[in-house]
Design goal:
Blueprint (H helix, E strand, L loop, with lengths): L1 H11 L2 H26 L2 E5 L10 E4 L14 H21 L20 H15 L12 H9 L4 H10 L1
């Protein structure tokens, strides 16, 4: 009923219909301006949604400062897993050719597009359950590098700090 009234009011140019139309046009103008501002910012592409009727957009942002780019120490097992993952990505790139969107991402969809947080969080939750790990948020894993180095250094904080400076 509301939809029919809206369509009818637009076609008859009633006051209510033209008001809604004006608001809609204003919103569209605002979105176009926002898109122009975002395009001028130091960002990578704005990705169109994969699902229909979705207004959320993924935006890859570059780090704010050079100090935001960090090297982290990884256990050998993780390094081996990441090497194998990289090989499989390279094979997929070769297979897909121009269809693959390469943004140099470690975690990406099969076509190279960035993976949404909700997908990563869902998979991480399943992994924690299977492995019987404590319920921590994904972002807290950034501390695991330092924790692992502390264990290797038998709790020697000075040694861990020195190792951190070498990386």
């Amino acid at each position: 009923m509301v939809t029919k009234g809206y369509v009818a009011s637009q076609s008859s140019h009633s006051r209510e219909g033209s008001g809604i139309s004006s608001v809609h046009e204003g919103i569209q103008r605002g979105l176009r301006r926002l898109k122009k501002v975002l395009e001028k910012m130091d960002t990578d592409p704005i990705f169109t949604p994969l699902m229909p009727n979705t207004s959320t957009r993924l935006i890859l942002k570059k780090p704010k400062t050079d100090s935001s780019i960090r090297k982290v120490w990884l256990p050998k097992t993780v390094a081996y897993i990441l090497r194998e993952w990289k090989k499989s990505q390279e094979e997929l790139k070769g297979f897909l050719g121009d269809e693959y969107q390469d943004f140099d991402l470690v975690v990406a969809l099969p076509n190279g597009r960035p993976c949404e947080n909700r997908i990563i969080e869902k998979e991480f939750s399943l992994l924690k359950q299977k492995a019987g790990l404590p319920n921590v948020v994904f972002h807290s894993l950034r501390h695991s590098s330092t924790t692992y180095k502390l264990k290797l250094n038998h709790g020697d904080l000075k040694g861990t700090q020195a190792m951190q400076k070498l990386i």
